[in-house]
């Protein structure tokens, strides 16, 4: 069994699976249940300034989208930061940390954008023995209207400024949580780094409306006939989150800045993918909210088995795929594959045919007895047939060797060449 | 003194009324909304779907399942009814395991097809429960069509003709419309008077008049119908029953299985319906299974289906055979009846074992006897009362692909006519197709 012990910016945990700052980490009771189930760490639900706590709606605060068999694919929420008094949270954090010394406990913070507010909250949590702080610059709903959360995260200068205050007034490791509701995630990450952040975590939730009630004509979740945009998370956001993690990991300005990966992680495989793209650890919320804390046990056993099978240590995995994330212009335009349909595995549903014939390149032939075959002289290897086929590995992309004559182009497969040197590129540089 | 399965003879009330009610309860429970959505999710929405090709009425199955999945079962029902106006009954009685579900690609993939029949029932039940009829009649054409026989083929033809704007009169010899939907089929497949409810719902299209108690050859003649109507559609079914051709066949309690089933279907109180203690059903089709299973469900102690060929040759599907054996029916194959014994009423039936030879089926000479107080004959039905002058083919009214008979202006479909299997769904397709052809010929 592979050693999953994780050291993220000096914060140790028995595994790299943390619960993200969210409803599951709002109080001692939940956090202890999470630790009992095996979670390596938690980021405590965001604390605000002292004083009367925020209030939440008393109607539904979550909306969702589902896949087949009502599998929850995306979740959206309009919940705010913790609505429990600051003192209660601080007291519980102290109790939990003293009892669970081997687990990571990070405190998420969100206070108004002035130095005194940050100085004050940092002082208040100083003696909790928490392992670090995470700055919530991400929440897109409610708090952003009050100049906090993503309202800060969308302005790189503010991120840098607040991060600097935090590093000035605290010796704790500082993780800056980024919002995906921006155009280029590298900018806020660079700002966090300039401000002295020890790490970034991403993504926070995405602005969203998950559904519209077609009787009441209101977005859902619906509060007294009205709705507002909420923060979207769950399996559906994973591709967006992974791209953002990779962008930061491969950006020369931020390369090497530790990343805590967040966004739809549901299984060990999701976690491994985030880590391969450069995340040092991962944070999970929706999977726990959907299936309960026990899901971490599959993540632990799965990641462990994978590392054993590969003969890799956890640290070997981090960033292993980062060098292979590149720009389109550097992709090998001479790389050639063709779809191939396994007749033994084909169940003759014809979805590949419909997809190719109606919406792609008319590269699949259908015989009277429903045998489906690929026409190499039409196939551009787009992969749509692979993606719509209900039988895994029935249709595969077969790589063609160098020199193979492609009947579609009548040209042999050549050596590596990309767009930068392609004759059709007006700004192509001459091949060296 | 109450009766039990062990009571000798042919008696009623072998089981408690509660047990009988439970036995004849809906054979396959309807899907609820959630179950339907889970089942619908499994459909792959195949291109040129094999299930649709396998359906005699060519229902657009992927489309109706998608309509269920997206929360519009009423639209799904309309997709079904557009092709098969008796889609509600077919959802209950079709041998889907040899039609759409056998062709389902998920049967290929996992040995577990999409539950097309049950999904069809969910959709059709949903719409029918609302009491609305989804089709309206076209402008009146002034043409009149006579339909003889109010079974599935006749009803299907009548509905399509009425929809096209023609006036339709449907004649039937029996006291009720529905044909085998009402008088045949196993009761547990079509509970709560569904057959009549379906007829009533179908008639909401308007323009159809049903005249019961009118038999062709007795109360009606083809010549008269031709004189008074612009077209005639014959769907008179197969009223005759094949004989065993074994000595003793005339003994009491040797009767056609269809007669027993009809009595059962029309019985208002199954506890008062007599059934034997030792029932032997002869035949290998759906009628044999329906008669045998229902005998067992009424409390017969021993029920045996005896079929003269091998089990693989039985017309009843594997699913139906399994249903019979799980109900406690014994299936004996390769045995042909040679004599019925008994003094007045049957007490035993004697069979000869058979074997397949190069010259066909041959009796081996070895015989055995089964105790029997009831023998139900289910060895096929025959056409009787076909009007003079109609060309026949293999004992059925000869028709072309659109149901035209040898006499101009006369169409035929359903079990009485050639083509297709003797199934409700096939009859519906034939009635519909003939109606389209009648319409085309009347409007030119």
From TrEMBL, chain A:
One of its GO terms (molecular function) is dihydropyrimidine dehydrogenase (NAD+) activity. Residues 337-369, 370-400 form the 4Fe-4S ferredoxin-type domain. PROSITE patterns: 4FE4S_FER_1 (PS00198), 4FE4S_FER_2 (PS51379). Keywords: Iron, Iron-sulfur, Metal-binding, Oxidoreductase. GO terms for cellular component: cytoplasm. Pfam families: DHO_dh (PF01180), Fer4_21 (PF14697). It comes from the Bacteria. Its EC number is 1.3.1.1. It catalyses: 5,6-dihydrouracil + NAD(+) = uracil + NADH + H(+); 5,6-dihydrothymine + NAD(+) = thymine + NADH + H(+). Involved in pyrimidine base degradation. Catalyzes physiologically the reduction of uracil to 5,6-dihydrouracil (DHU) by using NADH as a specific cosubstrate. It also catalyzes the reverse reaction and the reduction of thymine to 5,6-dihydrothymine (DHT). Belongs to the dihydropyrimidine dehydrogenase family. Heterotetramer of 2 PreA and 2 PreT subunits. This is dihydrouracil dehydrogenase (NAD(+)).
UniProtKB/TrEMBL annotation, chain B:
Residues 22-131 form the Dihydroprymidine dehydrogenase domain. Gene3D superfamilies: Alpha-helical ferredoxin, FAD/NAD(P)-binding domain. Residues 143-431 form the FAD/NAD(P)-binding domain. SUPFAM superfamilies: alpha-helical ferredoxin, Nucleotide-binding domain. It comes from Fuscibacter oryzae. GO terms for molecular function: iron-sulfur cluster binding; oxidoreductase activity. It comes from the Bacteria. InterPro entries: DPD_II (IPR028261), FAD/NAD-bd_sf (IPR036188), FAD/NAD-binding_dom (IPR023753), Helical_ferredxn (IPR009051). This is NAD(P)-dependent oxidoreductase. Transmembrane segments: none annotated. It holds the Pfam family Pyr_redox_2.
């Amino acid at each position: 069994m592979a050693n999953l012990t994780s050291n993220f910016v000096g914060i140790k945990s028995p595994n790299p699976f943390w619960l993200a700052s969210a409803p599951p980490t709002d109080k001692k009771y939940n956090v202890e249940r999470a630790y009992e189930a095996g979670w390596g760490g938690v980021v405590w639900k965001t604390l605000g300034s002292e004083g009367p706590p925020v209030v939440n709606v008393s109607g539904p605060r979550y909306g969702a989208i589902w896949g087949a068999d009502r599998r929850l694919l995306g979740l959206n929420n309009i919940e705010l930061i913790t609505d429990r008094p600051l003192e209660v949270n601080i007291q519980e954090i102290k109790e939990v940390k003293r009892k669970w010394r081997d687990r990571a406990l990070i405190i998420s913070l969100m206070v108004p954008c002035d130095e005194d507010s940050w100085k004050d909250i940092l002082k208040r949590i100083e003696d909790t023995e928490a392992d670090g702080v995470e700055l919530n610059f991400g929440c897109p709903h409610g708090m952003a209207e009050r100049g906090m959360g993503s309202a800060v995260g969308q302005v790189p200068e503010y991120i840098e400024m607040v991060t600097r205050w935090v590093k000035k007034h605290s010796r704790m490791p500082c993780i800056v949580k980024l919002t995906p509701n921006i155009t280029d995630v590298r900018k806020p990450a660079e700002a966090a780094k300039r401000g002295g952040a020890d790490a970034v975590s991403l993504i926070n939730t995405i602005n969203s409306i998950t559904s519209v009630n077609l009787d009441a004509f209101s977005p859902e979740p619906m509060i007294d006939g009205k709705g507002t945009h909420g923060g979207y998370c769950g399996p559906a956001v994973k591709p967006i989150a992974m791209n953002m993690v990779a962008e930061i990991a491969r950006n020369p300005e931020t390369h090497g800045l530790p990343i805590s990966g967040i966004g739809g992680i549901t299984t060990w495989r999701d976690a491994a993918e985030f880590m391969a793209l450069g995340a040092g650890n991962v944070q999970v919320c929706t999977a726990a909210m959907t299936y309960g804390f026990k899901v971490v046990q599959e993540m632990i056993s799965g990641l462990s088995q994978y590392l054993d099978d590969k003969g890799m240590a956890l640290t070997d995995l981090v960033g292993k795929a980062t060098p292979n994330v590149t720009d389109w212009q550097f992709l090998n335009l001479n790389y050639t594959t063709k779809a191939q349909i396994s007749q033994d595995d084909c169940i003759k549903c014809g979805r590949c045919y419909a997809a190719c014939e109606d919406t792609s390149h008319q590269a699949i032939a259908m015989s009277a007895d429903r045998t489906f075959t690929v026409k190499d002289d039409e196939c551009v290897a787009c992969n749509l047939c692979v993606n719509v086929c209900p039988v895994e590995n029935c249709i595969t992309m077969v790589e063609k060797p160098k020199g193979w004559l492609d009947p579609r182009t009548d040209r042999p497969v050549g050596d590596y060449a990309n767009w930068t040197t392609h004759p059709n590129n007006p700004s192509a540089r001459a091949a060296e | 003194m109450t009766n039990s399965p062990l009571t000798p003879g042919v008696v009623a009330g072998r089981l408690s009324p509660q047990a009988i009610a439970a036995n004849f309860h809906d054979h396959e429970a309807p899907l609820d909304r959630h179950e339907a959505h889970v089942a619908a999710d499994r459909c792959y929405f195949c291109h040129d779907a094999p299930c649709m090709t396998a359906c005699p009425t060519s229902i657009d199955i992927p489309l109706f399942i998608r309509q269920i999945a997206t929360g519009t079962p009423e639209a799904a029902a309309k997709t079904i009814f557009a092709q098969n106006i008796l889609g509600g009954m077919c959802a209950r009685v079709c041998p889907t395991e040899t039609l759409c579900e056998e062709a389902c690609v998920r049967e290929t993939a996992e040995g577990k097809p999409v539950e097309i029949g049950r999904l069809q029932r969910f959709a059709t039940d949903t719409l029918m429960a609302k009491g609305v009829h989804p089709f309206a009649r076209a402008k009146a054409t002034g043409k009149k069509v006579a339909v003889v026989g109010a079974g599935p083929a006749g009803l299907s033809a009548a509905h399509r003709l009425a929809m096209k704007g023609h006036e339709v009169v449907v004649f039937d010899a029996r006291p009720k419309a529905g044909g085998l939907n009402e008088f045949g089929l196993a009761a547990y497949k079509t509970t709560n008077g569904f057959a009549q409810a379906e007829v009533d719902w179908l008639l909401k299209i308007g323009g159809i008049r049903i005249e019961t108690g009118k038999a062709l050859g007795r109360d009606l003649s083809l010549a008269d119908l031709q004189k008074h109507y612009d077209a005639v559609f014959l769907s008179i079914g197969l009223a005759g029953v094949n004989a065993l051709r074994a000595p003793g066949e005339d003994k009491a309690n040797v009767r056609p299985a269809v007669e027993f089933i009809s009595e059962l279907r029309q019985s208002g109180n199954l506890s008062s319906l007599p059934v034997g203690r030792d029932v032997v059903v002869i035949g290998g089709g759906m009628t044999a299974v329906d008669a045998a299973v229902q005998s067992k469900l009424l409390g017969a102690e021993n029920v045996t289906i005896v079929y003269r060929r091998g089990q693989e040759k039985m017309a009843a599907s594997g699913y139906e055979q399994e249903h019979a054996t799980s109900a406690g029916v014994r299936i004996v194959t390769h045995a042909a009846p040679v004599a019925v014994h008994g003094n007045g009423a049957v007490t035993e039936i004697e069979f000869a074992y058979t074997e397949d030879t190069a010259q066909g089926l041959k009796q081996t000479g070895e015989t055995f006897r089964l105790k029997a107080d009831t023998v139900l004959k289910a060895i096929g039905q025959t056409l009787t009362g076909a009007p003079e002058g109609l060309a026949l083919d293999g004992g059925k009214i000869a028709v072309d692909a659109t149901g035209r008979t040898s006499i101009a202006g006369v169409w035929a479909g359903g079990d009485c006519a050639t083509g297709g299997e003797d199934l409700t769904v096939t009859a519906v397709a034939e009635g519909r197709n003939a109606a389209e052809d009648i319409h085309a010929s009347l409007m030119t």
